[in-house]
Design brief:
By secondary structure, this protein is α+β, with helices and mostly antiparallel strands. 17% of the residues lie in helices and 28% in strands. The strands form 2 sheets. A 9-stranded antiparallel sheet has the order 1-2-3-10-7-12-6-5-4, covered by helices on one side. A 3-stranded antiparallel sheet has the order 9-8-11, with no helix packed on it.
Length: 272
């Protein structure tokens, strides 16, 4: 169910630049300038409620000029690298510091209070392209996943995805809950990281490929369709997966592939 509320989406610029990232995941950030303002004051914001606990914010027509972001990525396509710090099945390029600041400002002003999030202590922002064909996926990439694995219990993580492509067949995002115990689900994920594809498939009855529907281990509770210039924000602890039902349409070209801008916001949890 989608519930609409009104909001003013003008986002001020942050007072200071984010510190330069040095790890592989964070990467160095460039100081490329953006046009101002970035966010669309007439955007439509809705809540997609999946059940009594799980929901996703959906912002349509989020940016005033999304083509600017696509052009930025296209002009720097040679700077995209394979992801080797997580199981993301594709390539990435860190976003400019100013873009990360703007996205953080928007999250803190218009989304943070809907989550168990008090103060944002870190943001990671990057351009991403899913590129791997199904036969190249490792078993862990056959499954839905969480973004907050290993996070300190005093912190929470929220995530955002901005769809920067016109072809809806490239896929949106699906959300899931486990159907087995925590112990059994944990064993599944552990085996998915270590087992060979053939051994994992035989042991768990799962087939290679991108996950876009329920299976014996996870029940789909909802999904958000891909739409040009649509921004979604959700709890990073909620199981999710890219809805890639037509992997033959994937491309490493930012102008025709499944280009997204992904944000990850680590926050202190609310006081109890």
């Amino acid at each position: 169910m989608l519930v609409v509320w009104s909001t003013a989406l003008v986002v001020p610029r942050s007072g200071g630049a984010l510190a330069e990232r040095r790890t592989k995941e964070h990467g160095p950030v460039a100081a490329e300038a953006l046009q101002t303002p970035l966010f669309n004051p007439a955007a439509t914001v809705q809540v997609a409620q999946f059940d009594d606990r799980h929901f996703c914010l959906v912002v349509d027509d989020a940016l005033l000029n999304p083509d600017e972001l696509v052009q930025f990525a296209a002009e720097r396509r040679a700077e995209f690298n394979s992801v080797d710090f997580s199981h993301y099945p594709g390539i990435y390029r860190m976003a400019p510091a100013e873009l990360s600041e703007r996205l953080t400002d928007y999250f803190q002003l218009h989304a943070r209070r809907r989550f168990d999030a008090r103060r944002c202590v870190e943001t990671i922002c990057r351009y991403s392209l899913v590129t791997l064909p199904p036969q190249a996926l490792h078993p862990i990439q056959w499954l839905c996943h969480r973004d907050d694995v290993g996070l300190d219990a005093r912190l929470s993580m929220q995530a955002s995805v901005l769809y920067l492509f016109h072809d809806p067949e490239l896929g949106g995002t699906g959300f899931y809950v486990p159907t087995h115990s925590a112990a059994a689900t944990g064993a599944l994920f552990a085996d998915a990281r270590l087992a060979s594809p053939s051994a994992f498939a035989a042991r768990y009855g799962l087939s290679p490929g991108y996950m876009h529907e329920s299976n014996a281990w996870f029940r789909r509770i909802g999904g958000i369709a891909a739409k040009w210039n649509r921004l979604i924000i959700y709890d990073g602890g909620m199981l999710h997966a890219s809805d890639i039902a037509a992997p033959d349409r994937l491309s490493a070209d930012p102008e025709s592939g499944r280009l997204t801008l992904n944000g990850f916001f680590t926050c202190r949890r609310n006081l109890r």
